[in-house]
Amino acid sequence: MTAIKVDHLHKTFRIPHEKRTTIFETLTGVFKPPMYETFHALKDINFTVEEGEALGIIGENGSGKSTLLKIIANILRPSSGSVTALKKLTPFLELGIGFQADLTAAENIKIYATIMGMQKREINDKLDDIIEFAGLEKFRDTKLKNFSSGMQVRLAFSTAIQTDPEILLMDEVLAVGDMEFQQKCLDVLSQYRKDGVTIVFVSHDLGAVRRFCDRTLLLHKGEQVAIGNSSAMIDKYVYAGVEESTHVNDTGSNVENVQSNENIFIDNHKNAKNVEISDVKFFDKFNNESSQFNSLDPMIIRIFYNAEELIQDPVFGIVLYSDKEEHLFGTNTYLRNYHINSIFGKGHIDLLIEKIPLHAGKFLLTVDLVQSKNYIPIDHKDKQYSFFVIPTGYDEGLLGLSCSWETGI
Amino acid sequence: MIVNHLKELYDYRNLIWQLAWSEFKLRYKNSILGYFWSLLEPLLMLLVLYVVFSNLMKIQVEHYQLFLFIGIILWGFLSRATTIGMFSIVGKPGMIKKIYFPRDIFVISSCITALLMSVFESLVFIMFMVYFRVPISINLAYAPLILIFLFIISLGLSLALSALNVFYRDVQFIWQVFLQAGYFATPILYTIDIFPKNLQRFVLLNPIARIITSARDTIIYSSPAKIEDLLFMFLSSIVFLLVGYIIFSKLEPGFAEEI
């Protein structure tokens, strides 16, 4: 059975150049037509969510995810098209809606629980549980303004999870709080899933989306790119960032590097004239150029060169650095016994990586071209290229190892 | 449609009450003294007006202190309900933008907050009644009906004002001027008899004028309410509520974007 149906949904916002917020301004401006920009936030969105299904919504900032969620929640209204929810909606767009600093913890719980749609008797029954779960037994009658922000979030969260939703709309609630809190949120989410609650989940946490959502909707600049299997959509999203430049801004960072590392030999230094590394590009598993990669996915580093004179026995090398310029890895063709006789003219050479052994973050790449094993430098591009690795799970750290746990006997 | 909406509101009765009650508590910061201070304002007002009008202006009205007090309480309710109501949407951007329930709930609960505040003053009024040994009669039974009309009119006004205030922020200033003018144009300090007969008809176009005079008649003077007045109050409360709801529901879809 269908729980939510979104049909040809459009949403435009009118952003006036000069906002009229008073009757006075409206009257005095009656002969001046109002100037405004229209912003098409959502364009022709169509999908359905089945009962008991978890749908993820992903997309970059400004792609319309939150707007879509707010329209489903009936907070914003569609410009055209329709949204039909056939069951009771419980939006978790923010924790602690309606909290009043001057009321006590117990009073705030009562109001918040009522807002979240709980019945009076239910609230009275669960009040002690909620306070206990939040670990705030001692502060039951303390005014909220005397609570730390962490305590407030705990209070709000333990109240919110007492609701018995039919359709849960969740927007980045997980983004606040420490690791432990996020884990708690995810536990609650999986409990809801087990209970068969329909969930619509907006997140930048692709790992969570992959784990919890049966299907995922991918938005790009207000348009529905695709909807389908979560892993496929996440791949599409991660490897779609083609337009983003793979270069670290060319001149700026070079100057910085030279200044900050005075003892380092001069960048970009060339011995042989007219021979250079012209570009470096990264390719994903679909052979598309990209600057973002899933952890443990394959990757190709393609080094383009332009040799206007013949170079005998060239050696290409790369060095990989973390964002903090820690030296992570280095290799070259000589070390790998890959012999190139000579290069002349334009061409490229690929470094094939089976699985990117990195977990998360931005990584910098230095590329080297030297002549023969004596390392006579020809061209050297110091940390001029970069790519991002996006985590697919909940591991931590810089490195990604493909591993699994097993119990011994 | 109306029946459906009423049913929906009934389902939210707990929320309406919670919002009204918490707002009420917040106004007095949970302190007993707070409630007491809130009484001081109307009582001081009563004292000043009583001294001025009964001695200097020589107004000859039976039980003038009660006559005045009832006017102050009822007008005070209208003024408070519309003022709190007017800010019930713009004052809660967090709730408007992050969750949805029928938004007239905010307005209804703010009118209930105003009602709770007026209940205190009414308790003092009852003490006055007892102290001055004002006889009561069966005609007192009209009073609740009259107060319900007042509530509905205030609600209708609050609905319109709260919605307009989202889009035109100077509505709040304009309304304050209206309230000021209304205070003197309504027979609160004086009886309607000070006007010549043909002018009285105009004054009585104001439903609040009829509400206050009828309330006085039934509560203090043990006389029944005029059928004509009741009919007028009934019709005007329907009109106010209807117009208020039409304005509110026309503007309501834009609330979350505009705030």
Structure in words:
The complex is a heterodimer of chains A (409) and B (259). Chain A is an alpha/beta fold. Chain A folds into two domains: 2-238, P-loop containing nucleotide triphosphate hydrolases (Rossmann fold, 3-Layer(aba) Sandwich); 246-390, Coagulation Factor XIII, Chain A, domain 1 (Distorted Sandwich), CATH 2.70.50.60. Helices cover 23% and strands 36% of the residues of chain A. Chain A has nine helices and 17 strands. Chain A has helices at residues 23-28, 65-72, 105-115, 120-133, 149-160, 179-194, 206-212, 230-238, 250-260; strands at residues 2-16, 36-50, 54-58, 80-85, 89-92, 167-171, 198-202, 215-220, 223-229, 275-283, 292-294, 299-312, 314-322, 327-332, 342-353, 361-371, 376-390. In chain A, strands 5-6-7-3-8-9 form a six-stranded mixed beta sheet, with helices on both faces. In chain A, strands 11-17-16-13-14 form a five-stranded mixed beta sheet. In chain A, strands 2-1-4 form a three-stranded antiparallel beta sheet. In chain A, helix 6 (179-194) links the parallel strand 6 and strand 7 (198-202). Chain A is globular. By secondary structure, chain B is an all-alpha fold. Chain B has one domain (2-258). Chain B is globular and about 55 Å long.
Instruction: Please summarize the sheet with the most strands of chain B.
Output: none
| Chain pair forming the biggest interface | A-B, 28 and 28 residues
Reading the helices and strands of chain B in chain order gives HHHHHHHHHHHH
Q: Provide the number of structural domains of chain A.
A: 2
Q: Supply Rg of chain B.
A: 19 Å
Report how far apart the termini of chain A are. 46 Å
CATH architectural group of the largest domain in chain A: 3-Layer(aba) Sandwich
Number of helices of chain B: 12
The count of DSSP E runs of length 2 or more, i.e. the number of strands of chain A, is 17
Total of DSSP H or I helical runs spanning 4+ residues of chain A: 9
Task: Assign a percent range to the helix content of chain B.
Answer: over 70%
The helix-strand sequence of chain A is: EHEEHEEHHHEHEHEEHHEEEEEEEE
Strand content of chain A: 35-45%
Q: What oligomeric state do these chains adopt?
A: heterodimer
In what range is the share of β-strand residues of chain B?
A: under 5%
Overall outline of chain A: globular
